[in-house]
Fold this sequence. Notes:
Radius of gyration: 20 Å
Shape: globular
Amino acid sequence: MLRTTEEDEVSDKPLDEQVLHRVEDRVAWITLNRPEVRNAMTPDQRNRVISLLEDASADLGIGAVVIGATGEGFCTGADLRAGRDRQPPPKPEGAPERIMGEAARMIRRGAQRLVGAVLDCEKPVIAAVNGTAAGIGAHLAFSCDLVVAAEEARFIEVFVRRGISPDGGGAYLLPRLVGLQRAKELVFFGDELPAAEAERLGLVNKVVPRAELERAAAEIAGRLASGPTKALGMAKWLLNRSLDSDRATAFDEEAWAQELVVGTADSREGIASFVERREPDFRGF
Length: 285
């Protein structure tokens, strides 16, 4: 949902308060924190989320990531009152107001970078959806590896309501998650999709009461964070690639992935624990 009303002022909170970040028990928590606008996202917030995801990939102390939000909304789309994060260069005299390529460039640098950062993160990413996820907010959730939603959560492909086509990877993600016909239905009508129906369609992994959302996300993230991080990251990469690859390419990538993963300390620990009939103690590298 695009935020454009007069009462929706751009937050004057420091950026690290607009997007909260903490690491506990090898889980990085990234929390959108502008509940007054149901977490409509500014370019600065988006860029901070991207940066935190990139940092999580490189940090050996992180094994999983949870993206959540405060208040009643997960993310209701882009906050248009925030303007652009970078202005186009000055136009030469006589140039029209609207230049071909500017809108496409804005989408590539903005919403697509955000969704790509989630897909490319080397750690499993869990969405903890507390309320409405609309537009890029819905696509942010759908790009995560697993989705836990509160019972009152709603997902909305809001673009048709604004007379625009989907962006932020929606036309890429939805057919892969629910099939082509269902994806068209969601995009063409833009109706609210309740959490229970989203779970039935396969867009959500688990629906819980609102009061249990953080605990449920922490439980899933904790299991992943205690696992063999490099093996999980490679599995994520292979699975994401599989729907874009032919069989020969997928088999070849699978073989090389195994070649890389068996050289990790966690792989050696996994084999040793099996031989010694004990639980593995994975360290994430």
